[in-house]
């Protein structure tokens, strides 16, 4: 796999004063308008914080498991450190933009949680996680146990409701201090605000977490004939009850859903119920999954869409341009656009003014970014 050193600029840590005061303070003071050039630079450039990466463990009682469910959890946190040891993600990608266990910066920060795709892992989109953390955001991603690159391709019914509960368990653990570690007081560093992002099966996971209502009758009818793999593989009354109860977490106030699937678990009415601002992101060279149908379901609400010209299904991950064929966007160009648009949405949703031009497309992130307000 290619080294991250060929992909990323080193962290900018000399201008910490440039960090938007609003991220740490909740935007108590009026922010002067930014010029169009400043808006674009604000979201695309590496942020002023260094980034520390920490790997933790979390267990919680899940109703689908007889024993506590254990999660490996990765944290990207703002740091004021001036040097550190580069992180190597799972022996696959070496980072030149984040440091292993760098100290946590003083202050409080909003949180972004991330859900990886089927057979992914917590750090699958580290390019984006690092970018967000460098701008003063805590970012936390769990491995969805039994559904990672290291677990094989099979997925059973339970993982469909375990995945959203994994993310809620992360929020519970953060609130309770369970994720705190020596020198890493995450519960004190979190300001209580939460947004979320996820890719592919993680996009489905966010739809469930963000208020999607399951079409349980359609599920029961489809699963009358079991399948070897997927949502109907072991479907029973307990699963039907879990889906009917819903898996929404009202703490999440904005969602970036990237290349999602499993539309039919909700249907259009179920996705129209999403609980707040949302972005649907899709790649123009991604032949599968359900991004178009997701967008059709949510576009009447507080929703936006980014279509990435030349983007394949993996364009939203560190493996952009690999394992796929076709006229694909250069990875660095895709990451730049995804970083900029995601950060603009996150900051706007948190209350920062002056970024609407990026979100409505009147300020262009490039010819490969097709934006629907």
Please specify the SSE layout and strand pairing.
Elements: H1 21-25, H2 36-44, E1 50-60, E2 69-79, E3 86-89, E4 93-100, E5 109-115, H3 126-134, E6 138-142, H4 157-176, H5 186-189, E7 190-199, H6 201-209, H7 216-222, H8 237-245, E8 252-258, H9 267-271, E9 278-283, H10 291-298, E10 303-308, H11 331-350, H12 356-360, E11 369-372
Parallel strand pairs: 1-4, 5-6, 5-7, 7-8, 8-9, 9-10
Antiparallel strand pairs: 1-2, 2-6, 3-4, 10-11
Radius of gyration over all CA atoms, rounded:
19 Å
The number of E-state strands comes to: 11
Q: What helical percentage do the residues reach? A: 25-40%
* General shape: globular
Strand proportion: 15-25%
Please list the strands of the largest sheet in the order they lie side by side: 3-4-1-2-6-5-7-8-9-10-11
Q: Mind describing the biggest β-sheet? A: 11 strands, mixed
Topology as a string of helices (H) and strands (E):
HHEEEEEHEHHEHHHEHEHEHHE
- Which secondary-structure class do the elements indicate? alpha/beta
What's the end-to-end separation, in Å? 36 Å
Number of domains: 1
Instruction: Tell me what the CATH architecture is.
Output: 3-Layer(aba) Sandwich
């Amino acid at each position: 796999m290619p080294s991250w050193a060929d992909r990323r600029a080193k962290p900018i840590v000399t201008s910490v004063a440039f960090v938007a005061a609003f991220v740490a303070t909740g935007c108590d003071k009026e922010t002067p308008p930014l010029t169009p050039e400043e808006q674009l630079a604000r979201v695309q450039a590496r942020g002023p914080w260094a980034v520390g990466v920490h790997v933790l463990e979390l267990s919680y009682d899940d109703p689908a498991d007889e024993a506590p469910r254990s999660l490996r959890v990765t944290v990207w946190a703002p740091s004021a450190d001036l040097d550190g040891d580069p992180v190597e993600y799972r022996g696959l990608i070496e980072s030149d933009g984040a440091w292993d266990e760098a100290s946590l910066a003083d202050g409080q920060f909003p949180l972004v949680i991330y859900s990886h795709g089927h057979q992914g892992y917590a750090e699958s989109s580290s390019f984006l996680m690092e970018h967000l953390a460098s701008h003063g955001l805590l970012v936390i991603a769990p491995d969805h146990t039994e559904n990672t690159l290291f677990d094989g391709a099979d997925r059973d019914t339970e993982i469909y409701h375990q995945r959203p509960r994994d993310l809620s368990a992360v929020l519970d653990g953060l609130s309770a201090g369970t994720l705190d570690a020596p020198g890493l007081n995450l519960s004190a560093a979190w300001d209580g605000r939460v947004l979320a992002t996820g890719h592919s099966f993680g996009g489905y996971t966010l739809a469930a977490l963000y208020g999607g209502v399951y079409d349980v009758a359609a599920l029961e009818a489809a699963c009358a004939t079991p399948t070897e793999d997927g949502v109907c593989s072991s479907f029973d009354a307990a699963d039907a009850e879990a889906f009917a109860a819903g898996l929404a977490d009202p703490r999440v106030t904005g969602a970036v859903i990237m290349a999602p699937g499993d539309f039919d678990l909700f249907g259009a009415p179920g996705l129209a119920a999403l609980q707040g601002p949302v972005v649907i992101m899709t790649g123009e060279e991604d032949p599968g999954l359900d991004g178009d149908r997701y967008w059709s379901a949510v576009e009447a609400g507080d929703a936006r869409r980014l279509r990435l010209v030349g983007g394949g299904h993996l364009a939203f991950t560190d493996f952009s341009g690999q394992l796929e064929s076709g006229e694909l966007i250069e990875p660095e160009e895709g990451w730049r656009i995804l970083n900029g648009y995601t950060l603009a949405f996150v900051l706007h949703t948190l209350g920062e003014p002056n970024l609407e031009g990026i979100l409505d497309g009147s300020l262009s992130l490039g010819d490969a970014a097709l934006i629907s307000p």
